[in-house]
Fold:
Amino acid sequence: MDEIATLEQQLVDRNPQPADNDNVLRPRLMGEFVGQRKVVENLQLFIQAARSRNEPLDHILFSGMPGLGKTTLAHLVAEEMGVPMHACSAPALEKPGDLVGILTRLEPGAVLFIDEIHRLPRVAEEFLYSAMEDFYLDVVLEPGVQSRTVRLSLPRFTLVGATTREGLLTAPFRARFGVLERLDPYPEVELAEIVRRSAMKLGVGIDAEGAALVAERSRGTPRVANRILRRLRDVADVKGDGNIDRAVAERGLGMLGIDGHGLTELDRRILRCIADHGAGPLGLKTIAVAVGEEEDTIEDTYEPHLIRQGLLKKTPRGRVITARGMDAIAA
Ligand code: ADP
Structure:
């Protein structure tokens, strides 16, 4: 395979490259975090108030689509509070013991970040209630007839939860978060700013038109913008002079299969699948099987953009493709 063929293969690969680790491009200071002004202002105020009272911050729940900056904000909250942060993913906390281990080892004031918190097993969720509210845990020793309960007190900590599905959280759990912040997709000007900053960190030049084009095709999501930028850097290095201009951006986007609506091949397969079934309504399960993707991924990652673009509609009986959606796949 020659150099270009290898690059093309890499570009069409849907999986992120190992070097695409989000951490490298993650803002290190609140001031570097672009957009979401209201959320950032609220957080800064709550942080200032908590610091002035010398208290840990209230528990926070961030909701919004994948890649909008929930994890980044959790890191920044810990950074601004000057406390350590421990991160874990909810589905990994299968046994109550997993959570006990983490909670009992927290430093006073620490931030515990739990990603995908709507997928927390119910037992772990109930366990968290007393930990969040009164900072203790009742642990059952030797379950069975001889069972004993031991109360463990915990240091005061801040739980930061992130979810793509706030609606799946139970009401009592949700009520235990003092701060609820929703992140929305970013407007193109902000995404272009994120692209420019990321390009600087990656040491690649990008002009205003190149950045605007990446922003336009990034479905309102910084993670998507950063991922496209990295692939365009490859194109610029191999095919251009190392800088990303409109021509390089167009060429790279074409190789990635990202069209003028910001749609990827999988978006188009979803739309085609519905179109092939009489334009819908079609159930999510059927679509997932037909396109070979998880139902959750389709619902969290692909559908929000298709809906915002007016290409797909959700109805009580299933998904329906719109006339605009038909046009988008006609080309
Ligand atoms: P989430 O946790 O919501 O899935 P992340 O916090 O992991 O999203 O963000 C994904 C990537 O996007 C991060 O690496 C970060 O570099 C970038 N990012 C997200 N939001 C912003 C922002 N507001 N400003 C700059 N970069 C951002």
Residues 185 and 220 are 5 Å apart (CA to CA). The chain is about 50% helix and 15% strand. Residues 22, 25-27, 33-36, 66-72, 162, 194, 222-223, 226 surround adenosine-5'-diphosphate (CB under 6 Å).
